């Protein structure tokens, strides 16, 4: 039995913190503010649309539909996002429906990243980007958001974390194939400003680099901040793949409906990966999401819009969690978007002392202590950093406030 069973592409990507923390959370009674999904009902119109899809007269909604996206859904996505991107979208060639944003990301890396290609990832980052780049044979290159001190007497905001323009520029080389942008960003909740987007866009155009723009939290933006779509900036449509998720958009993470939008010259390669792996996404869920987008299109920007209501509700939940964390002595970083926030736990080091010579980052051990002794689950922020940088950021933990 000396023959290795594991494919080489899995080397170094086979450990995953989620497995350990999900298990721990299941073992002790707790309030789980770790994993990010709503514990409230999706809106009635979304549930009704699904009920109608499975019990209505159109029996074909129980069968396979078009492999690259159910016609009703790609049509509505093209209409909705075409307006926002200022771009006429062809439903058949500029939209691809995927099994959640996860599959959309996987298709991007598999279809467009080759051995020897470098992919720039902005830290802290949604943790699957790094293994996905590696599984495609690419090399992740990291650049960090750097924090500046909060204004006197104020809590730090996710907006206080910024890219250093010279540092970012230095990461673009001849080998750079793509940059991954995630705004609003998980785990920090940062909403990149137009100026920051322009900086990234200019570098992409200058170096002929692609942009994978993960915008799954596009509607969860607070305090009047604006979500900028990088594909709408000059020179970017033709080199950007925009990724979205009905899971985050309509509070239905279990449905696993996602999509990519982009030029045919890029999407045709994603279609090849999709065709030869997943092939097809559940029809009834796609039909229901199509109806939900129809309703949002009709109510766009109005108080009746779910997108408007959800952001208002979550902003209140955010403020409540911020106050609660301050009351127990943590220092939350107030997020401008998403349903996550990072909090500084440095004040607790005397209470939960660090073990010298331990390989395990402090935040990870702190959370284990917090689960067992306080019944509260969060996620270590070191998870969202590359290995060499984990220990520099292990005084931070991530909470989810969608509960
Ligand atoms: N991107 C980001 C930044 C996420 O946080 C998540 C889910 N946690 C995804 C993509 C995956 O989304 P989906 O559930 O639609 O696959």
Automatic annotation (TrEMBL):
Documented EC number(s): 2.6.1.64, 2.6.1.7, 4.4.1.13
Catalytic activity line of the entry: L-kynurenine + 2-oxoglutarate = kynurenate + L-glutamate + H2O; an S-substituted L-cysteine + H2O = a thiol + pyruvate + NH4(+); 3-phenylpyruvate + L-glutamine = 2-oxoglutaramate + L-phenylalanine
Molecular functions (GO terms): cysteine-S-conjugate beta-lyase activity; glutamine-phenylpyruvate transaminase activity; kynurenine-oxoglutarate transaminase activity; pyridoxal phosphate binding
Record key words, sorted: Aminotransferase, Cytoplasm, Lyase, Pyridoxal phosphate, Transferase
Cell compartment(s), UniProt: Cytoplasm, Cytosol
GO terms, biological process: kynurenine metabolic process
Biochemical pathway: Amino-acid degradation; L-kynurenine degradation; kynurenate from L-kynurenine: step 1/2
A Pfam family that the UniProt record links to this protein: Aminotran_1_2
Obligatory cofactor(s): pyridoxal 5'-phosphate
Cellular component aspect of the GO annotation: cytosol; mitochondrion
InterPro entries in alphabetical order: Aminotransferase_I/II_large, Kynurenine-oxoglutarate_AT, PyrdxlP-dep_Trfase, PyrdxlP-dep_Trfase_major, PyrdxlP-dep_Trfase_small
Main location: cytoplasm
Aminotransferase class I/classII large domain boundaries: 31-394
PANTHER family registered for this protein in UniProt: FI04487P, KYNURENINE--OXOGLUTARATE TRANSAMINASE 1
Quaternary structure annotation from Swiss-Prot or TrEMBL: Homodimer.
Family, similarity comment: Belongs to the class-I pyridoxal-phosphate-dependent aminotransferase family.
Name of the featured protein: Kynurenine--oxoglutarate transaminase 1
Originating species: Chelonia mydas (Green sea-turtle)
Lineage: Eukaryota, Metazoa, Chordata, Craniata, Vertebrata
């Amino acid at each position: 039995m000396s023959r290795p069973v594991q494919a080489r592409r899995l080397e170094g990507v086979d450990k995953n913190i989620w497995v350990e923390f999900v298990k721990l959370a299941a073992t002790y009674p707790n309030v789980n503010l770790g994993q990010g999904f709503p514990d409230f009902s999706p809106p009635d119109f979304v549930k009704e649309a699904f009920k109608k899809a499975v019990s209505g007269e159109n029996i074909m909604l129980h069968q396979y539909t078009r492999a690259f996206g159910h016609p009703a859904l790609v049509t509505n996505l093209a209409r909705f996002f075409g307006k926002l991107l200022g771009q006429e979208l062809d439903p058949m060639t500029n939209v691809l429906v995927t099994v959640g944003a996860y599959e959309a990301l996987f298709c991007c890396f598999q279809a467009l990243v080759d051995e020897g290609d470098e992919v720039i990832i902005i830290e802290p980052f949604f943790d699957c980007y790094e293994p996905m780049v590696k599984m495609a044979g690419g090399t992740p290159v990291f650049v960090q958001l750097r924090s500046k001190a909060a204004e006197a007497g104020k809590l730090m905001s996710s907006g206080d974390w910024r890219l250093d323009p010279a540092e970012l520029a230095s990461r673009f080389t001849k080998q750079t194939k793509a940059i991954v942008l995630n705004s609003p960003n998980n785990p920090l909740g940062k909403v990149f400003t137009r100026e920051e987007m322009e900086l990234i866009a200019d570098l992409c155009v200058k170096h002929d680099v692609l942009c994978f723009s993960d915008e799954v939290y596009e509607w969860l933006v607070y305090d009047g901040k604006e979500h900028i779509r990088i594909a709408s900036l000059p020179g970017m449509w033709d080199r950007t793949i925009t990724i979205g998720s009905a899971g985050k958009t309509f509070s239905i993470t279990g449905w696993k409906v996602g999509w990519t939008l982009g030029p045919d010259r890029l999407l045709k390669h994603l279609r090849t990966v999709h065709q030869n792996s997943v092939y097809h996404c559940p029809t009834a869920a796609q039909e229901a999401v199509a109806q939900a987008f129809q309703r949002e299109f009709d109510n766009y920007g109005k108080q009746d819009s779910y997108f408007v209501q959800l952001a208002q509700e979550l902003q209140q939940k955010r403020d409540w969690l911020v106050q609660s964390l301050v009351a127990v002595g943590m220092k939350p970083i107030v997020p401008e978007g998403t349903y996550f926030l990072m909090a500084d736990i440095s004040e607790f080091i005397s209470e939960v002392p660090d073990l010298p010579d331990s390989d395990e980052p402090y935040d990870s051990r702190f959370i284990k202590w917090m689960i067992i002794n306080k019944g509260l689950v969060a996620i270590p922020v070191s998870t969202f950093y590359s290995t060499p940088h984990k220990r520099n950021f292990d005084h931070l933990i991530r909470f989810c406030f969608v509960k």
